[in-house]
């Protein structure tokens, strides 16, 4: 099992800038170290007469292909996001050239199965769990089919405990747990929420088994919840919070601002181990379709964020740069807003039209996708479309200038001080009120 992971930026100046700005470099390192929960979950569904190995990759490595070939595998399973899928295709070629059969799955190949089929022996469209037994049986019989597609959404009550043991005993800054799949919202730009089926909740009994497996391997772990929008969708949040609290873990997750208007949820959030959440404020100049009740005026959003931070949970405010209506003036206003805001941390990304999203279909209809900027440019930090009010080079320059301003040493120190004040109110962190190194 080989996931293609890592932080990717194509534009050289942005790459150089990102690695010199502490806030960007810190988040890049954290993302790169997250294990691939999808493949570990499939490993948990693999029959006991099979053996599995797990190899993280960031590029198509001939030495890794040789290492895997020496194990004489019946099948190699690859997963990749859009920005890394071309590396996965190249790696598949290295494996097949050494006589191995390759299956690939994930969000990107779900939207581009014919493309993926040109590089691999088999493609999994949609969720992997429902078809994984058939993939293995066919591989064992030497009758692998070109395409596997689930006939119905996977019942998360049947989800196995992921094979965290495959990660080895070395240090792992954080592990991943999924409490739900999908999102009840349908934001235009989102490349994840609906591609693998409808929004579903994982039963608490399953979560307890997964958390027990993690804590048996890593006492008091740091977790990242692999959810698109935890606490959305009308679930029993108190039951979830109690389950997380019992694991004695610290965790980071993604939510929307409405958490800050739920006093009952706020009362137990920090006590459950939550130390930080990412909230999509998105754009100050454009209202994305599909955001539903997440759409609100900025003062209301910021009031809710202040409530979350008063409860001891730091908030990363996420902003999408380059939406329709963006200008030099609007980016200057965004920078000024962030510089004066109470946000404990910030994430900036360029609007990216991922395959399968309404955003990409809209920009394609309008003829605004840039030729020559393929999948490897879909990094969230490289421009892949023509802005409506700015030139391409103007937008790239303005994005770099915005990053320099927002992640300046002075701003980084200011936000670090905010985080310390917020975490002083967190019962899991209060004894030292210091910044947990793996939580931002």
UniProtKB/TrEMBL annotation:
The protein, known as: BchE/P-methylase family protein
GO terms, molecular function: 4 iron, 4 sulfur cluster binding; cobalamin binding; metal ion binding; methyltransferase activity
GO biological process: methylation
Cofactor: [4Fe-4S] cluster
Domain B12-binding positions: 13-146
Residue ranges occupied by any Radical SAM core domain in the UniProt entry: 169-386
Protein's UniProt keywords contain Ubl conjugation: no
GO CC term (a single one): cytosol
Recorded superkingdom: Bacteria
UniProt entry keywords in alphabetical sequence: Iron, Iron-sulfur, Metal-binding, Methyltransferase, S-adenosyl-L-methionine, Transferase
InterPro entries, A to Z: BchE-like, Cobalamin-bd, Elp3/MiaA/NifB-like_rSAM, Methyltransferase_Class_B, rSAM, rSAM_horseshoe, rSAM_sf
